[in-house]
Amino acid sequence: MLFVQVWKDVDGVLTSDPRIVSNTIPVTELTYEEATELAFFGAQVLHPLAMQPAIRSQAMDVRVKNSYNRQASGTIISKARDMSCSLVTSIVLKNNVTLVDIVSSRMLGQFGFLANVFDVFRSQQVSVDVVASSEVSISLSLDPKKSWSDGEVGEELNHLIFELEKISSVRVRSGMAILSLICNVERTSEILLRTFKVLLEEGINVSMMSQGASKVNISLVVDGDEGQRAVRALHKEFFEGPQSCLPSASSNGNGATAQAASRR
């Protein structure tokens, strides 16, 4: 088996950002898709493009190791893994997100309305992160700094709103955060039940939710001031306590048990 070894300053990919959660746990195994979603939504261990050679090969593992702690087993990223005992793998936070709500009764039963909306974003060269839609509305998030420099954000965002208002009503909320649960979406009902219970107890409102076509990611948009508190509360719920599922032990090649104790 071919593999690429990546040396970092942490013990592999972690269950969350150690700057937010003090007691994160290394994740022993990830799939290409899980690692890509983690990188895109804020994990600092891997760049979103770093997985592309492995994905193209479909036969190459990526091993993330700690150059300051060589004995740590690290994380193995491969094409597939056993998901039977996996619930939530990691929780990441992406800050400074802008949420755009687009509402128009003309969406109802009309052909091409979504194409018109996204054509505005294409013409303005704006990349969209997360999308959710209903019969008469679309909510989407974007990271202004990916498209514009700091000095351009205000003016360019106003121009984007102006163009969108030609076809719909628009509401914009800045200073939001995307909370992404990298998880086994085949167990979505259990994950969402526990997630919304925790957020209700914390008094944190979810402005938007998206699962989309991804089989490994559920994204929630919350107020940016509440993002870190939400991450800590959810990490406690899913990773700090007894496991509800104990997988059979197997070696990942470095002597580490496949399926970390973080899967709960």
UniProtKB/TrEMBL annotation:
Residue ranges of every copy of the Aspartate/glutamate/uridylate kinase domain listed in the record: 5-66
Keywords, alphabetical: ATP-binding, Kinase, Nucleotide-binding, Transferase
Pathway: Amino-acid biosynthesis; L-methionine biosynthesis via de novo pathway
EC number: 2.7.2.4
Pfam families linked to this entry: AA_kinase, ACT_9
Domain of life: Eukaryota
Residues in the signal sequence: none
Region named Disordered: 245-264
The Aspartokinase ACT domain, residue ranges: 188-238
Single Gene Ontology BP annotation: homoserine biosynthetic process
Entries under Gene3D superfamilies matching the protein: 3.30.70.260, Acetylglutamate kinase-like
Keyword Nucleotide-binding attached: yes
One Gene Ontology MF term: aspartate kinase activity
One GO CC annotation: cytosol
Family to which this protein belongs: Belongs to the aspartokinase family.
Name of protein: aspartate kinase
Organism, scientific name: Tetradesmus obliquus
